[in-house]
Design brief:
Competence protein, alpha+beta, about 350 residues, 4-stranded mixed sheet, single chain, CoiA_nuc, 3-stranded antiparallel sheet
């Protein structure tokens, strides 16, 4: 631990504390002692004492690190601030003349409902909040990714911090490292494994329409997901849309607005508990625009004047043909890093 309360109930760092002084933990109120090692000084609970609040050592250490980072930046900072009207305690509260900012260090699993409720409680109290996620979120699953997403510098961002360096990491829009041929090969293999998955609704839907899921058009594999906005993967989402497109009447036309409405009807957008509704809408709009451009380029759709129409949809005829087309596409499209995935977003908050 890097913080303790002295007899005057003032927070002190290990460098400020004196050996033998009576010290207590600011979280659980139990006694701690100052440890002076050969390389560093720190506080430790007395043998057998509990941290009380069910907090892990990593969580306690993380809160200490956040306190010190903001204190060293000459910010007015407090720890474990009570928010009685919502039965909450703020991990770290940073205050200045303009605003109050709550820092929540989240190490344990948490649901979307809990994140949303806590975030709304802060805003109702007139306090902005920033969630910083611990080590278990360093390599987030798709679901965790969506839970963690916050709005920073007008774009989605993941914020993590953990040992050994305790550096706050900001992860903005990125192209997956597993891109190009490796990604397409992995997607193809995953689709092939579903050939015996009789409970998979998408595989059954494709079969009912005379297709085998893994023989979907190669063009669906080439669109790269920059942020997981749907509940299923980008490829599976596109296959679902393509199957729905095949079921429409050949003469069906859409305006840009009605096309986006149609896509929304066939899309299960992910829940982002830390984003405002307009922020989620902004991300969805970019995704819809990228999808339209990609499908026009691959001929799944055509456009004349202001009308959007169904184009040519050709599924692969065999495994050999699909494999050959994947290799051709991978040679034509060199993996590249897209530095501006959100160029269509407006500037501002």
């Amino acid at each position: 631990m890097q913080l303790a309360l002295n007899q005057a109930q003032v927070l002190v760092t290990p460098q400020q504390a004196q050996l033998g002084a009576e010290l207590t933990c600011p979280t659980c109120g139990r006694p701690v002692r100052l440890v002076c090692g050969s390389r560093r000084r720190y506080f430790r609970h007395l043998s057998g004492q509990s941290t009380g609040a069910g907090e892990t050592t990593t969580h306690l250490k993380g809160k200490d690190q956040l306190f010190l980072k903001y204190q060293q930046a000459n910010q007015q900072v407090q720890t474990e601030v009570s928010l009685p009207q919502f039965n909450r305690r703020i991990d770290i509260l940073v205050q200045n003349k303009q605003q109050q900012l709550a820092l929540e260090y989240q190490c344990s699993p948490i649901s979307a409902e809990q994140l949303s409720q806590r975030t709304q409680a802060y805003y109702q109290a007139g306090i902005k909040v920033r969630w910083i996620f611990g080590p278990r979120y360093e390599q987030p699953s798709r679901h965790q990714h969506q839970l963690m997403t916050q709005w920073v510098l007008n774009q989605p961002c993941l914020i993590t911090m953990g040992p050994p360096n305790w550096t706050i990491k900001y992860r903005f829009i990125t192209t997956p490292a597993n891109s190009g041929w490796l990604r397409m090969k992995h997607e193809y293999a995953c689709l092939r494994r579903l050939r015996r998955a009789t409970t998979n609704d998408l595989a059954n839907l494709a079969y009912q329409q005379g297709h085998r899921l893994w023989l979907c058009p190669v063009g669906l594999h080439t669109l790269v997901e920059s942020w997981p906005l749907t509940t299923e993967s980008l490829l599976m989402w596109q296959i679902r849309l393509l199957l729905a497109l095949e079921r429409t009447a050949p003469a069906t036309t859409w305006t840009l607005a009605t096309w986006q409405q149609w896509v929304n009807q066939h899309t299960q957008w992910a829940t982002f508990p830390l984003l405002a509704a307009q922020q989620q809408k902004k991300l969805q709009q970019v995704c819809l625009q990228q999808l339209l451009v990609h499908w026009l380029a691959n001929g799944f759709l055509t456009q004349q004047s202001q009308k959007i129409m169904r184009g040519q949809i050709n599924w692969e005829k065999s495994d050999e043909q699909k494999w050959q087309h994947l290799r051709q596409v991978s040679r034509q499209q060199r993996p590249s890093i897209e530095r501006d995935r959100l160029v269509m977003l407006e500037r501002g908050n």
